[in-house]
Design goal:
The chain has 568 residues and is α/β, with parallel strands linked by helices. Helix content is 35%, strand content 21%. The radius of gyration is 25 Å and the shape is globular. The relative contact order is 0.09.
């Protein structure tokens, strides 16, 4: 096992301490590069300006709803989201980041489950917010990030910000002096799933701070780095690693205008770091390879370049960025580090990107771990691996099979406090010794790298890291009179995302009623496609059924009449 020293990092007690330290060190440096209007040039917001906005908005929030309020955020990635997050946590409130793509009923249910007092949202969510107001009695204040008329319990973000500045100028220190207990719940995050199945993860400021220190000690982040934020900010992977981490390290966070603008925004922002999910890296890789192999001459030149750079590196010469300058220029010319997370990725993609001069590594974590458990280092990595354990994290493999593969469990200060209002689920996930049971299967190799081989349960994981629960979709399908039995699986076509596939054994009695004896197979297929479309209307887009197969016999079952799931 290699013994490469860790990078030195600042210690911090809580997120307010982290903010204060970073502002003191990086005061006039750009913390954020934002787009006030799509298509216009970036506008810089300094560390000092951001800190002042956090203090002002936090002061207004405390004045509006009191200390300890539960503040839900429902919006796309934008500057107001970043302000709202620390304005909540640094005033001892509890922040509840919500997935903006959820159906309105699920948003209402999560607001009720979290007992949210305040909802901060963007104007893009105004129609949904208007419809659910009567369904969320605990929410006393609605704050729109975009201009609305302040009246009753409806407020405008900017007007609260201005009010907070006035309160601070008048000597109000309720927010600034609010005592912070770093061991208490400060973030409430809902895992993927339905309102019945999703779990509410309780994280403390201590959980997050030790995770920031750990990941930064393993992979170097420089104050000159620019992170392009492309993943949904409500997800703990992007929030901790793509927002709090660069802020902690003194880097700059650049707003991405959308997936179709990634390469354009990379060039405009001169981005050096990007956090990605496998699907995104696969897209980058596919585009590069398509161009590199456009014709035989180009392909030979590309392959020669790969061979040459590999040879030169063996003798200590690195010419990758020069030889593959055209590829780097397509990504803005400054990109040095890509980190993949959320799901496993093909090692060949990592190797190919590395061969072209991009440092491309993957990490491993879960919401319950704040989120990182393991990370490949910039100076020590294994492309087949999820990474090495973070400092202070003890990872073991238990209940091993004959091949040494078992469940991966982890223990450390980054492990969640538990599941909100669900002691049974907490006890099931965290054993008496304090180890969190991940549900992932794998082993630890001779160099200490964690190799994940599969899932313990039958959850489907899309290539962008989303969890899809087959039982949820099967339950909805069962409501159709034309479906006798169904089995939902995730099929990988090795190109695009996982294809959610529903294999259906039809209720032939109802089918015959509709079409008569010996129904046309094409008509039956069309009918079941239509039934699946109805189910899709009740689901978030990434859970949509995209392929419908029909079988002519019942599924094989256990003695308790449960369908036997066959794993590949």
């Amino acid at each position: 096992m290699k013994n490469i020293p860790l990078y030195e990092v600042r210690k911090m007690t809580d997120l307010r301490d982290m903010l204060g330290q970073s502002v003191k060190i990086f005061r006039d440096k750009p913390a954020f590069m934002i787009k006030k209007v799509r298509g216009e040039a970036y506008t810089n917001v300094t560390y000092k300006e951001y800190s002042e906005d956090v203090d002002a908005f936090g002061t207004a929030l405390v004045n509006l709803s009191g200390l300890g309020s539960r503040v839900a955020i429902l919006a796309e990635t934008r500057y107001e989201w970043y302000v709202s997050y620390l304005a909540t946590t640094n005033g001892t409130g509890i922040v509840v980041p919500l997935d903006k793509e959820l159906p309105k009923q699920e948003i209402a249910n999560l607001l009720n489950r979290s007992h949210a007092d305040v909802l901060i949202y963007s104007s893009s969510k105004q129609p949904i917010v208007s419809e659910i107001k009567e369904l969320v009695p605990t929410v006393k204040h609605f704050v729109c990030m975009d201009k609305v008329e302040d009246k009753g319990n409806d407020h405008w973000f900017q007007s609260l910000l201005e009010k907070g500045k006035i309160l601070l100028a008048d000597g109000n220190r309720d927010f600034l002096d609010a005592p912070i207990n770093a061991e208490e719940m400060t973030v409430l995050l809902f895992t993927s799933g339905t309102t019945a199945k999703s779990k509410a993860v309780m994280l403390s400021q201590r959980n997050i701070c030790v995770n920031l220190e750990g990941m930064s000690s393993m992979t170097y982040i420089d104050p000159s780095d620019v992170f392009l934020s492309v993943l949904p900010i409500h997800h703990t992977y992007e929030c901790t690693c793509g927002f709090l981490c660069p802020f902690y390290r003194g880097a700059t966070i650049a707003q991405c205008e959308g997936l179709r603008y990634i390469t354009q925004n990379m060039k405009e922002s001169k981005a050096t770091v990007i956090l990605a999910v496998p699907l995104m890296l696969e897209m980058f890789h596919r585009a590069i390879m398509k161009k590199a192999k456009a014709d035989k001459k180009m392909e030979r030149k590309f392959n020669f370049g790969i061979g040459l750079t590999r040879f030169l590196r063996k003798i200590g010469i690195d010419k990758r960025r020069k030889i593959f300058k055209a590829v780097h220029d397509n990504f803005g010319g400054n990109l040095r580090l890509m980190i993949s997370g959320g799901a496993g990725i093909d090692p060949k993609i990592l190797q190919d990107m590395q061969d072209m001069g991009f440092l491309c590594i993957q990490g491993y974590g879960l919401t319950e771990c704040a989120p990182i458990l393991a990370l490949n280092r910039d100076v020590d990595y294994n492309n087949r691996s999820a990474g090495l354990p973070l400092p202070g994290v003890d990872i073991k493999v238990v209940d091993k099979d004959e091949n040494g593969i078992g469940e991966i469990i982890g223990k450390g200060s980054n492990i969640m406090l538990g599941y909100f209002e669900d002691d049974a689920a907490t006890k099931e996930a965290i054993d008496p010794e304090g180890y969190f049971h991940t549900g992932d299967l794998g082993y630890i190799d001779e160099n200490g790298f964690i190799i994940i081989t599969g899932r313990k349960k039958n959850v489907i994981i899309s290539k962008n890291g989303k969890n899809i629960f087959p039982e949820e979709i099967e339950s909805l399908l069962s409501r159709s009179p034309y479906v006798a039995e169904s089995l939902v699986t995730g099929e990988d076509d090795n190109r695009e995302d996982i294809i959610v596939t529903a294999t259906i054994f039809p209720n032939m009695e109802e089918i015959t009623k509709k079409f008569g004896e010996n129904p046309d197979p094409d008509a039956v297929q069309a009918l079941l496609d239509e039934e699946c479309d109805k189910v899709n209307e009740l689901l978030v887009s990434y859970k949509h059924i995209r392929r419908v197969l029909i079988r002519d016999s019942e599924f094989e079952k256990t003695t308790s009449k449960k369908i036997i799931r066959k794993y590949k």
